Amino acid sequence: MDYRKTKNNQMIGKEISEKFYCKPLFVNLLLLVLNLFLLLFKLIVSSLNESLALLADAFNNLTEIVEQETQIQGLK
User: Fold this and answer.
1) What is the pLDDT of residues 51-74, one digit of tens each?
2) Fewer CB within 10 A of the terminal residue: the chain, N end or C end?
3) Residue 29: partners with Cβ closer than 8 Å, 6 or more residues away
4) What global pTM score does this model have?
5) Structural domain contains residue 38
């Protein structure tokens, strides 16, 4: 990873990575929202195209949403 130094010798790359890694609740909520959008998108497209493979993939996203919710409850 590229760690460039600023005028006061702080590492820029490290600050950016720590900004998100120190907030696992934020990251899990973001992934939960993204998985919800993916689920809805895949359900709509699979119903329009009558694709069973895309429908199965949409239900896979549903299991990921349950997993994200479990992780969020564990972090609280």
Assistant:
1) 999 999 999 999 999 998 998 888
2) C
3) 72
4) 0.67
5) yes
